[in-house]
Amino acid sequence: MKKTDPLLALTTAALSLPVFAGTPPTEKEISLRASSYEEDDISKTSVLSGSPERYKIDKTHFRLLTPLGSDWSTEINTSQEVMSGASPWGTFSGSDEQPSLIMSGATIRDKRTEVAVSITNYQDDASYGVTLGTSREDDYKSRSISLSAGWDLNNMSTLGIGFSFSDDDIEPTDAEKFGRIQQAKKQTRSFSVSWTQIINANSLLFSGLTYTNKEGFLSDPYKLRDTRPDKKTEWAASLKYRIFIDSKNAALHLNYRLYNDGFGINSHTVNAEWHQNISSRWKISPRIRYYSQSQADFYLDADDFSLPKTVNQSSDHRLSGYGAITVGIQMNYDLSGWKIKIGFDRYISDNRYGHDSSRHSHPALLDFNLTSLGIEYKF
Amino acid sequence: MNYLKQLILSSTTILVMGCETVAPWDRDVLARPEMQLSTDPMGDALFEQVYLSKEASSGGYKTAGGGCGCN
């Protein structure tokens, strides 16, 4: 059996820091992850017609990371999702002004297949990467390309930049039957810049800024009345702080994101994770996330059919003002190159949790469970 | 945008004022798996997609990937 030189192991570990852009992976990594996403049903009293049964998605994700020689690596990600359940078609205001929903039937079934291939070149103090991706559903096709680069500066920090472009085709099912748009396009361009800085021997800070521009059909084709602008700009700034606490043998992760877009939505996202080492093999990581968003400028509590179709309006719950909390935990088990990861997260949302909420809580606001099981092997 | 300016100014100030030089041989803690920016890329991808399709916000950490018709 091959023995590892402790000095070599330490040097390799020290060089595999997130602030070193020019460090290629030294081992192959193969991973498989199965996850189950399950939304709670909507209260039957809030549904005027259709099914209260909401989305369930089973996903299988495969990932392979391989060094190619000493200066290159490639990464392949493929995933498949199987979806079923009902989604909201429209929102109506009852006599008590409380919104009620028209839901689709529970028979929506779809499958999504995604493939992304990346190749990265490593120089002494830099890395350059390209990713090509495609995603296919019955009613949606997307092709994307991403370019990224990172430079190590003064041995203490890394500057990263990125650009991505995606070209999407939308072909809603049953378009003629329900008078939906038959074909539409959407294009997304995104730019990012980031700075990762070592603060001291136990902590580091990442700062990132992204600008995204979307053009084309940005409405939801399945809603009875949903008209959104055909252009949208998005700004997002983020911080990630990592600190290792020696006395607890644990690492604390704190992330914050500020978001603002051309639809008039601004949001705050804060999340914290505690990575506790229990032994050399076991690790437990509880986590909590808080999210709050304001509503879009054209959001309405209920669809207004008296307005011309050209006037912007949407009663989509995702454009309402609300807040959400996610609480979860992940267990990791390591053994001779093998890793097993089991995670469970519970998400709840309500307009009472938000910093700038809509007047009424949207009945379609989500609660869901997300469970995942993963296995990884390094060789 | 005022929020953004304040955030950038604050983080830059922290970086300039508060950093210590850490020699490569003193970086064993920073190299630990639990100290990486992403400790679980597949888990991050899963959450990113869920939140992207179920909330109005996205981005902040890297450029946007390909789209989906997730409802």
How much β-strand is present in the residues of chain B? Answer: under 5%
Choose one word for the global shape of chain B: flat
Judged by helices, strands and strand pairing, the structural class of chain B is mainly alpha
Instruction: Trace the largest sheet of chain A across and list its strands.
Output: 1-3-4-7-8-9-10-11-12-13-14-15-16-17-18-19
Radius of gyration of chain A, in Å, reads 23 Å
Using the 3D structure, state the CATH architecture of chain A.
Beta Barrel
Counting H and I runs of at least 4 residues, what is the number of helices of chain B? 2
Question: Could you tell me the radius of gyration of chain B in angstroms?
Answer: 17 Å
Identify the quaternary structure here. heterodimer
- Helical stretch tally of chain A: 2
Low-confidence stretches of chain A: 1-16
Structurally, the number of domains of chain A stands at 1
Give a quick account of the main beta sheet of chain A: strands, pairing sense, barrel closure. Answer: 16 strands, antiparallel, barrel
CATH topology of chain A: Porin
Order of helices and strands of chain A: HEEEEEEEEEEHEEEEEEEEE
Task: Please trace the helix and strand order of chain B, writing H or E for each element.
Answer: HH
First-last Cα distance of chain B:
30 Å
Name of the top-level CATH class of chain A:
Mainly Beta
**Average pLDDT metric of chain A:** 91
Beta strand count of chain A:
19
Task: Write the topology of this structure.
The complex is a heterodimer of chains A (379) and B (71).
Chain A: H1 6-15, E1 29-39, E2 47-49, E3 56-68, E4 72-85, E5 88-93, E6 99-103, E7 108-123, E8 126-136, E9 140-153, E10 157-170, H2 175-178, E11 184-200, E12 203-216, E13 231-245, E14 250-261, E15 266-277, E16 282-293, E17 322-335, E18 338-350, E19 367-378
Parallel strand pairs in A: 2-6
Antiparallel strand pairs in A: 1-3, 1-19, 3-4, 4-7, 5-6, 7-8, 8-9, 9-10, 10-11, 11-12, 12-13, 13-14, 14-15, 15-16, 16-17, 17-18, 18-19
Chain B: H1 2-18, H2 41-54
